[in-house]
Amino acid sequence: MNKKVTSINVPEELQYQGVQFTESWLNYGQTTLPNIFLFNPEVSAQAKVLFAYLFECSQVNETFPTIEELEKVMGVTKPQIIKYKKELEDFGILKTIRTGRENHYEIDFGVLG
Q1: Where are the domains of the chain?
Q2: How do residues 83-109 score in pLDDT, each as one tens digit?
Q3: pTM for this structure?
Q4: CATH 1.10.10.10 matches 12-112
Q5: 3-state DSSP: the chain helix, strand, coil percent, rounded to 5?
């Protein structure tokens, strides 16, 4: 059963603000990840989705989502978000920097070789 997706919940700051495409799915934007990371079996699919979202946020602005925002976007629980973040940190591609009550992230593509 194929279900056509007609809309998704994309945060406003990540929505494409320019040209409107005839293929409506293009209006939601897209995220590109290096294949060496995307196809790496050492990183779970869920951690890759988390990374893709954090990477997209880093490209648009310097504010990163809270755990609660990540829960809503990914449709998973706080413990799962923490687990996927730890997986990315253990892999070496993500570093979490705590500033007061906020988390900031550094992305290090150097780990990919």
Answers
A1: 12-112
A2: 999 999 999 999 988 888 777 888 898
A3: 0.73
A4: yes
A5: 50, 10, 40
